[in-house]
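Give me structure tokens for this 231-residue protein.
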Amino acid sequence: MFKSKKNWLFLPAAIFVLGACSKGGDERLKERADIESRKAAENSVLSENENLATRAQKNEARLAHRQKFFTAVKGFYEGSFILAGEKHRIRITLTPSVFPLPDGGTRHPDEVTRDLEKLDFRIQVQQWLEGSPISGGGCSVEGLNPDLKNGNLQLISGACGSLFLAITDKSLLESATPREQYAESIDILAPKLVAKIFDGEITSIPAISGFTLSNANAETVYFIAERVERP
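Here you go.
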């Protein structure tokens, strides 16, 4: 009987030890769960950063590809055409909305995406009677997106009327009329020049061919405008 009482005296101590062990085990499990949670969060951040970097690299490559065309085409072009028996001059200025980043520069992925979305041309068109610069007028339009596959630009604006342009070279300047030059450019020359631009064979085009439809009359006027230095 005495032995049985002795066993009952040790029972609360045993329960206390078991409770303490259980509490310590819970704390270790919680600590391990916290560590695993932090690791999972860190891995998630790393994965997200890697995805952002990958997207940024792809967008940088796309932007650099498009910039080749804009860099080759931007600039000043001047030509002439005959309208109502009189010789007129035309000057076309093409300015990119976004310029290439200097070598070695870095940007946040959002900046790259924004530049890719914003990249387009601002075009300014000026016309005047030859020998009388003050006789003319002009207009400008922003947000002109070129056809990067075929090398042409189309502008339809209330201020500027309708203007259709194609990049070209000087191979037909002596042997073709402006209308023939445009037809040859839109079908053959412009796509070939685009391929050379993207292949890095050329970095600047020598001329643009085009035609315009005036708001004042229905006459179609063809012209060739050659690259010039800043007027």
